[in-house]
Structure formats: structure tokens, C-alpha cells
């Protein structure tokens, strides 16, 4: 049998062994848990790296696109600015010519205004002098006697009577002219009808013997002219006399479309 001290030592060893085993198991579990946690943290880090890479790539792409747009905008702005500067330079170069043209126009306008003012002033001075002369002439004349109210009323009455008389004469003359015009138109119509009847009566051609002499009459002629012509001058004369009267009558009475009988 063991001694008590030895027993105590063995018991302590056994307890130490048990404690070591328990500690070892605990350490193993802790290491295992730590490994699991490390794997999880590692996966999270990988995920974060991927996320950061994606975000950085997207941000880089967006930044590049924005940068290109800004560069294009700056280029366009430079073109527009260059064109504007060229136009401004042209305008600035044209300004002296415009200023010279304006100065010339101003000089011409000033000369024209001065000329007009001078002419107007001279005209006004002449008008004033003429007015002074007229006033002097009026002052030298004798003042006529002013018209009275009775004189004015008498003149007004005379004017009214004259106007009434003129209106009456115009009315009477108008009526008389209309009546005379109507009467003349009726006379002309009757005369035209008579002339037309006469023309109808003399229109048929007369027999040739009325105008041409027979052979016997030619032999009896008094002169050579009558013998050669062979025309019955007496018949021609009578016919011409009848038709001439009609033509003269028709030419004597002429109807005007506006005034009636002429």
C-alpha cells in the first residue's frame, strides 16, 4: 500500500491530468472556434474586397465618363469662345469705322440743323418786320366805323333771301330743263320715225332710165360732156335733192346721251 503522501501525490497527478485534458479539450474547442471565426472573417474580408473593387470600378467608370463629358464640354466651350472672340475682334475693328460714320452723320446733321435754324430765324425776322410794317400801316389808317347789330342782321337776312332765291331758281330751272328735255326727246323720236318712213319710201332703186339717158337723148345733147357721160342729170338732181333733205334733217337733230336734244 501506498503511503498517505504518495496517495495524495497520485491524487494530485490524477487531478492535474484531468485538468490538463479538460484544458486541452477547451483549448482545442477554442482553437476550432477561432478557426471558424477566422474563416468567417476571411470570407467577409473577401466579400468586402469584391464589393470595394466593384464600387471602385463603377466609380472609376463614372468618373471617366464624367471626365470625358467635361472635356468635350470644355472643348465645345473653347470653340464657342474662340468664335465669340473672333466676332468681338471683328466688331472692335469695325468700331472705329462706325464711330467715324457716326461723327460724319453728326456733322452733317449739325450743319443741316444750323442751316434750318438760320433760315427759320431769318424767316421769322422777316415775318416780324413785315408784321411791324403792317401794324404801322394799320395805325396810320383811319379806324373804320364798326358794324352794328342791325347791320349784321340785315346782311344775314339778305344772305338768307339770296340763298332762298338761288334755291328757287335752281328748282325751277331743273324742272323746266327736265320738261324741255322730255319734249325734245319726243320731238326727236317723232322726227326719227318720219325720217325712217321717208327712207323706206325712197329706198327701192329707181329704174335705170331715170338716171341714164336714152340713145336718142344722147344725140340731142347740147355739149360733148353730156354726150360722153350718158347720165340723166335732172333725175339725179331731183333724187339727190330729196335724199339730201332727209339727210340734212337727220344730221340737224342729234340726241346727246347726257343732255338730250342738241
From TrEMBL:
Entry-linked InterPro entries: CCDC154
Pfam family, one: CCDC154
Highest taxon above the source species: Eukaryota
Organism per entry: Pomacea canaliculata
UniProt-recorded name of the protein: Uncharacterized protein
Amino acid at each position: 500500500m501506498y503511503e498517505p503522501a504518495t496517495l495524495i501525490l497520485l491524487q494530485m497527478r490524477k487531478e492535474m491530468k484531468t485538468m490538463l485534458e479538460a484544458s486541452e479539450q477547451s483549448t482545442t474547442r477554442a482553437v476550432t472556434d477561432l478557426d471558424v471565426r477566422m474563416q468567417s472573417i476571411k470570407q467577409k474580408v473577401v466579400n468586402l474586397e469584391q464589393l470595394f473593387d466593384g464600387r471602385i470600378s463603377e466609380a472609376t467608370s463614372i468618373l471617366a465618363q464624367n471626365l470625358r463629358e467635361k472635356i468635350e464640354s470644355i472643348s465645345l466651350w473653347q470653340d464657342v469662345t474662340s468664335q465669340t472672340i473672333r466676332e468681338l475682334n471683328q466688331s472692335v475693328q469695325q468700331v472705329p469705322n462706325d464711330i467715324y460714320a457716326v461723327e460724319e452723320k453728326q456733322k452733317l446733321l449739325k450743319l443741316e440743323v444750323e442751316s434750318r435754324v438760320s433760315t427759320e430765324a431769318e424767316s421769322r425776322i422777316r415775318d416780324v418786320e413785315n408784321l411791324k410794317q403792317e401794324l404801322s400801316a394799320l395805325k396810320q389808317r383811319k379806324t373804320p366805323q364798326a358794324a352794328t347789330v342791325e347791320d349784321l342782321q340785315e346782311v344775314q337776312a339778305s344772305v338768307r333771301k339770296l340763298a332762298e332765291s338761288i334755291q328757287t331758281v335752281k328748282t325751277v330751272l331743273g324742272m323746266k330743263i327736265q320738261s324741255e328735255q322730255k319734249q325734245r326727246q319726243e320731238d326727236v323720236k317723232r322726227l326719227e320715225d318720219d325720217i325712217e318712213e321717208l327712207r323706206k319710201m325712197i329706198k327701192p332703186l329707181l329704174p335705170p332710165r331715170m338716171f341714164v339717158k336714152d340713145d336718142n337723148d344722147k344725140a340731142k345733147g347740147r355739149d360733148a360732156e353730156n354726150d360722153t357721160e350718158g347720165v340723166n342729170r335732172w333725175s339725179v338732181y331731183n333724187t339727190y335733192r330729196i335724199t339730201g333733205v332727209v339727210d340734212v334733217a337727220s344730221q340737224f337733230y342729234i340726241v346727246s346721251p347726257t343732255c338730250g336734244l342738241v
